[in-house]
Amino acid sequence: MEVDLCRLLRQAPARPDRQPVVVVVRLFTDGGARGNPGPAAYAYVLEREDGEVLASEGRAIGVATNNVAEYSGLVEGLRKAIELGLTHVELVSDSELMVKQMRGEYRVKNEGLKELFLEASRLARTVGTVEYRHVRREQNKLADQLVNDALDAAE
């Protein structure tokens, strides 16, 4: 299910006495591989603060590592955020490595991740504001379920 957030915001009545409202959308991402490397999948969920899901996807990507799958979820989620016209996104992921690399706290040493990291960085700049938050797996249930569903469907 997709919601045209830009259309909804344009239809909202103007309030000249107030500052523009910044709509923050959470981007939950996940990736997994059965075997590492092995059959892999990514998922993303774009969700408003009130819990309404704007878009979601889970997709198998063939044989890859879990980190490639994690970054693939981030890249595809950011692409969807751009498509929806979002300008402020809070990334929520259970991948500590990816979150710290995107924050600039860790270097990207793995050659297989560098291209995905650069693409994610470019897309994040296009969005505008992206904040990165690491959470435990239990706080990322829907994206995790979409990854597992995609892996199961690919078997």
Core attributes:
single chain; 155 residues; alpha/beta; Nucleotidyltransferase, domain 5; five-stranded mixed beta sheet
Fold and architecture overview:
This protein is α/β, with parallel strands linked by helices. It has a single domain, classed as Ribonuclease H-like superfamily/Ribonuclease H (Nucleotidyltransferase, domain 5, 2-Layer Sandwich), CATH 3.30.420. It is 41% helix and 28% strand. The chain has 5 helices and 5 strands, in the order αβββαβααβα. A hairpin with a 4-residue loop joins strand 2 (38-48) and strand 3 (53-64). Helix 2 (66-83) runs parallel beside helix 4 (111-127). The chain is globular. The protein starts with a helix and ends with a helix. The mean pLDDT is 91.
Strand content: 25-35%
Mean pLDDT comes to: 91
Ends distance: 25 Å
Largest sheet: 5 strands, mixed
CATH topology: the name is: Nucleotidyltransferase, domain 5
Overall geometry comes to: globular
- What is the N-to-C order of secondary-structure elements (H for helix, E for strand)? HEEEHEHHEH
Helix content: 40-55%
**Content-based structural category:** alpha/beta
Please mark out the parts with pLDDT under 50 across 5 or more consecutive residues, or reply none.
none
The order of strands across the largest sheet is 3-2-1-4-5
Give the domain tally.
1
Top-tier CATH class:
Alpha Beta
Number of strands: 5
CATH superfamily: Ribonuclease H-like superfamily/Ribonuclease H
Count of individual helical segments = 5
Alpha carbon gyration radius: 16 Å
CATH architecture: 2-Layer Sandwich
